[in-house]
Structure formats: C-alpha cells, structure tokens
Design goal:
Layout lengths: L2 H17 L2 H10 L5 H18 L11 H19 L1 H5 L7 H12 L15 H16 L1 H8 L7 H8 L13 H26 L3 H12 L17 H14 L3 H10 L3 H4 L2 H23 L6 H16 L16 H8 L15 H19 L8 E2 L2 E2 L2 H27 L4 H12 L18 H15 L3 H4 L4 H4 L2
Helix pairs in contact: 1-3, 1-4, 2-7, 4-6, 4-9, 6-7, 6-21, 7-11, 8-10, 10-11, 10-12, 10-13, 12-16, 15-16, 19-20, 19-21, 20-21
Length: about 475
C-alpha cells in the first residue's frame, strides 16, 4: 500500500476543502451575523492539517492504482465529514455535540438532507449557506472536482474518478482525458445550478434563498434554509421550478453533456434508463395524485396534483424537499413513497437509491429465470438498450443488491436495539442509505430523537449509500489489504 502517495493526495484535498470555508465567511461579513469566528478557526485548522499532510511527502508521485483510489475516496469522505463538522461544533447557536455535528456534516456532504437542527429560520445566514454549500459540493463529488482542477494528482486521476463516481457504468468517459471529463461534468453541474437559481429568483425567492436552494436542488440534497422547507414559500411557481431541476438532477449527467453538445433532446429519449426513470415518476405520481384526491386529502384536483407530483419527484430523486408532511398522508402512500426511494434516479446522477438501471437489470434477470423454468435449454440474454450485457455485469448487480439488503437489515436491527420502533428504524435507515432525508415515524421531520449510537449508524448508512456499498465495504475485506 502506497501510504505516502495516499497521504499526499489527502493533504491536497484537505487544502482544497479549506477553500470552501471562505464563502461562508464572506456571507457572514455581508449579513453581519456575528458567526464568522467558527469558520475562521475551522479554515485554519483544515488548511494547516492539509499542509502538514502534504509537505513531508510532496515529492512522492508514484502511480496511483485503483485499490489506492478506493482508500483515498473512503478516507477523504471520512476526514471531510469530520472537517466539515468543525464550524458546526465550534458555533454557539446552535450548540451541537460532536455526534450531531458529524451527523449534520455527513448528511450534507452525502446529499442526504437528514438534520438534527431545529429553528433554521433563526440561524445565522453564514451557517445556513454553509450547509447548502456542503450539499452542492457533495452532489457531484468533491474528488471529481479535485481531478478537474488539480492536474497535480497526475496519472492517478482515473482511479479516483472510478472509485468516486456513482453508478454501474463507471468506465465510460465523456472525453478522452479524465481531467476534461471531470471538468465537463462540473460545467454542466454549475450551469444547471445557475439556471435553477435564476428560476427560483424570478419565481419569487430572495437572492439568498434562490442560491441556497439551487445548491440543494441540483445536488438532490434537500436541506433547506427554513424549517418548513418548501411549505414556507407556499408558491406553485417555485415548486414547479424545483420539480424541473430535481428531475434534471436525477438524470445521468453524461446524457446532459451529450444533449448540450449536440443541442438536441434526442439523446435523452434514446436512453432506456431515462425512459424507465420517467415511467416510474409518472406512474407513482398518478397513483399518488389519484389517491390524495380520492381520500379528500386535498379538496381540489389541482391541490392533489401540485403536492403529489412535487413529493413524488422529491422522494424518488432522493432530494427530500417537502411541501407538506407526506408521512401523515393516508393509507399506503407514505410506505409507497419510501419504497419508491429505493429505486432512486439514474446512474451517473446526483440521486441516491439503487439507481433505475440496476432495478431494470434485476427485473430483467428475474424474468429470464422465469423463462428458463419454461425453456430450460434456451439461451436468453439480458439486454439494455438493445445491447446484450455480459454475465459479469448481471452478477455484479445481484451482488450489489444482496449486500445492500444485508446492510440495510443489519442497521435496521441495530437501530431497533437502541429503542426505536420498527417503522422509525426501517424508514431512518432507508432515508439515510438512499440519501433521501425525511423518513417516517419519529424521523419524519428531523432526527433529534435518535440516540448517539443510532446517529453514528445512520452516518455510516449515508456514506455507504453515497459510495454505493462496494467502494466502502471493499476496504473491510482482508483480501484487499494483502499484497
């Protein structure tokens, strides 16, 4: 294991992350909120830590292999969550414990949107901005950003990119060089964020809220600057903007790149995963809207459509914004929406969940096994978009799903052992592992009722979901550490 090379890269990435503490300082000065001190101290600590890691090994430039990429990604996300917690831990309003600060930082960086903070409307503007900024950086992955802007990472860039980028099709590059690929992703991400902020502003948000919520929308993070989330604005126009950009955030960013490059929307509808994504959203929204109107939860068809569509898109894309307490909706709707969050958005998007393409492959493989019972000797390929997939890909999907279910069950049992009821435990793990945010039961609004042990388990669940299980669990296998 090339520990010196790993140390050098982590030092560089920490120095890079320290720069992200400067914008909240600027916001604090602009709004004169008196909350600049924690950010100044955190900036100094993170920068000095990064420098102390980097200086002793700055000349070590051996080739970074894929296995080292996994170590760097997991180590950095862990260190990043701890570093990101510093301003929250050092602040006095709210006064947060170490566990709560790390939980909040991990939630923002993994774009989960679960929170332990109440009284958001009374917090300093700099702190509110900081939470939104962390989501935005975590959305596309700060390591992909590092590959884009730090050529000094050298030939190990592809290994970091493959270890960090979510989805089952990681080897596809949009451009011949990995640095250009990462830059292309970030240009698309930044462009959509700016467009979203402009849309929010013209729909009626203040400049601050428009920027803050655009960060949370494209990253599908879901943290808001208000306790009531989107119910605070009570605006169909603002909600319409959110629906459009949440939907775009749940789309494979490679498709955005191809569509923008060709100035055509045809690449979207030529993609089988995107079509399935729209189908899942449409069917779920239709069922939700019809049942809300049937049960008179909302008095008009317009009200049922407005809240039904918003909440379905928010949950399936793992954003987690709310216009109303969906956990209090009648009948099967809360459970259906929570289960729909397992599907998530497309591979290569900022969404959480299993990803649409994996669900498609699981269904196709299940159908193939049924056909094999009828025709035992038949060769029945699994196809996506007209292309036959290798057995290795199908096996990997089943392996991922198996580990996902096992981890989910184990963490749910641990939470129940801490005293939470079945519904709260199940939904809390689902909300964190799928990077959704709001759950059911005692965690429908926030996670303050969860014990410290439970919060550490859920923090692990967030990281496990963000890094898509394999990247994290591979480090826990003895074979990984053998020469």
């Amino acid at each position: 294991m090339q520990l010196f090379v790993i140390q050098r890269i982590v030092g560089i990435l920490l120095m890079l992350f320290s720069v992200t503490l400067l914008p909240p300082m600027a916001v604090s000065l602009l709004y004169d909120d008196g909350a600049i001190a924690p950010f100044v101290v955190a900036f100094g600590v993170v920068l000095l830590t990064g420098v102390s890691f980097w200086i002793p090994v700055q000349a070590r430039r051996e080739e970074l292999k894929l296995r080292h990429g996994f170590v760097v990604v997991v180590l950095f996300w862990t260190v990043l969550a701890l570093s990101g917690a510093l301003p929250l831990l050092l602040g006095t309003h709210p006064h947060m414990s170490f566990t709560d600060a790390v939980f909040e930082s991990m939630s923002a960086l993994t774009t989960t949107g679960a929170t332990t903070i109440v009284g958001l409307d009374g917090l300093a503007a700099s702190l509110l901005f900081y939470r939104q900024e962390l989501q935005w950086l975590g959305g596309m992955g700060i390591i992909v950003l590092a590959v884009a802007v730090l050529p000094m990472l050298g030939i190990g860039g592809m290994q970091l990119y493959r270890a960090e980028t979510p989805g089952p099709m990681k080897d596809n590059k949009l451009t011949p060089r990995i640095t250009e690929t990462a830059k292309a992703l970030w240009y698309i991400y930044l462009g959509l964020t700016v467009a979203c902020a402009i849309g929010y502003f013209f729909a009626g948000m203040s400049v601050f809220d428009a920027i803050a919520h655009s960060f949370a929308t494209l990253s599908t993070g879901g943290l808001s600057t208000h306790d009531l989330s989107f119910a605070y604005f009570d605006s169909p126009a603002i909600e319409a903007v959110a629906v459009v950009f949440m939907l775009l955030g749940g789309v494979n960013f490679a498709l955005h790149f191809i569509a923008f490059s060709s100035l055509s929307i045809r690449p979207y509808f030529g993609d089988s995963e995107f079509r399935a994504y729209l189908w899942v959203l449409a069917v779920t929204a239709t069922i939700t809207t019809a049942y809300l109107y049937y049960t008179a939860t909302f008095s008009s068809v317009g009200g049922a459509l407005r809240h039904g569509i918003f909440q379905v898109v928010s949950i399936i894309t793992s954003t987690g914004f709310t216009t109303t307490g969906y956990a209090d909706w009648p009948g099967f709707l809360p459970a259906m929406l929570l289960l729909a969050s397992f599907i998530g958005g497309c591979a290569g998007s900022t969404s959480g969940g299993l990803k649409v393409i994996r669900v498609m492959l699981l269904i196709k493989q299940a159908m193939r096994e049924i056909m094999r019972l009828i025709h035992p000797n038949a060769e029945i390929p699994v196809k996506i978009g007209g292309k036959t997939l290798p057995y290795r890909v199908v096996d990997a999907i089943w392996g991922f799903f198996s580990l996902y279910v096992i981890c989910f069950c184990v963490m749910s049992l641990i939470l129940m052992a801490t005293g939470l009821d079945l519904v709260t435990s199940f939904s809390a793990v689902a909300a964190c592992m799928n990077n959704v945010g709001p759950g059911l039961g005692d965690v429908s609004a926030n996670f303050t009722s969860v014990s410290p042990v439970g919060k550490w388990v859920l923090s692990f669940a967030m990281l496990l979901g963000r890094l898509e299980v394999f990247t994290l669990l591979v480090l826990l296998t003895p074979a990984f550490w053998r020469r």
